[in-house]
Amino acid sequence: xxxxxxxxxxxxxxxxxxxxxxxxxxxxxxxxxxxxxxxxxxxxxxxxxxxxxxxxxxxxxxxxxxxxxxxxxxxxxxxxxxxxxxxxxxxxxxxxxxxxxxxxxxxxxxxxxxxxxxxxxxxxxxxxxxxxxxxxxxxxxxxxxxxxxxxxxxxxxxxxxxxxxxxxxxxxxxxxxxxxxxxxxxxxxxxxxxxxxxxxxxxxxxxxxxxxxxxxxxxxxxxxxxxxxxxxxxxxxxxxxxxxxxxxxxxxxxxxxxxxxxxxxxxxxxxxxxxxxxxxxxxxxxxxxxxxxxxxxxxxxxxxxxxxxxxxxxxxxxxxxxxxxxxxxxxxxxxxxxxxx
Length: 341
Hints:
Deoxyribonuclease I, Chain A; 9 helices; 15 strands
């Protein structure tokens, strides 16, 4: 079975309110890329992936006018993808949903959120992801109330053979210090936003630990917008979001080979994204996207691959795919092949 996670930059901009693709020469929300060019490139990438399930990060919007499932299933139909059914969880107001495209001939999938629905009062014990988490972020004896701007997607899945497992799709994000003026104000805002992201990682890790304690096979997929050595404030807090979600060595941990490699060697990291820095006229690469698995799934010896157009030999060797990966998004798919029972 092939599982993938793919952050599609501003996927939402490629659809109209009826969920139809806008295939014209107008500019997409990607730099110097038209809507037609991005749609064509995405069709090439998704077709080449031929995945049984793809966790789509920055999926099309869900609101009173737009429907994420309708848009994604229409996209899948246009390119005749096996992964032709879509499911989302709790919608958000960022125009960047989290959704799963999957092959219904291979998998049965349902949204299955776990945890207490707290309302505004919150809970310290991993509430439902659309609720409020109470945590003292800065050790001032005052609890902060934390919410997800993009609630993780919790799914219960079952293969045709009856093997049951779970997925959590996540898109953690630390906001830029918008509105802050001056070095000190920017630093204060950046630290506050970083602290909130780490709190979200702790919340997610609590849910992971619940499943590990219950010996439930688990995958955590998505864009954590963080990694060892990536953030200048990491030393201030001691750990990255990735390290928090993976877990401590003394207890049950999730595993992702790219994350582990980056933790061992911060100077030679794999990368899953490529951003253009206009002021410096250059590209920045980073490891942001992961497929983490529980020990029982790791024991099945899955293989991971980042479809990086310049770092993966297979992608680089196919010019059409290489160019499509560069045009489709500023992130590249992370793929895991695994033989599930």
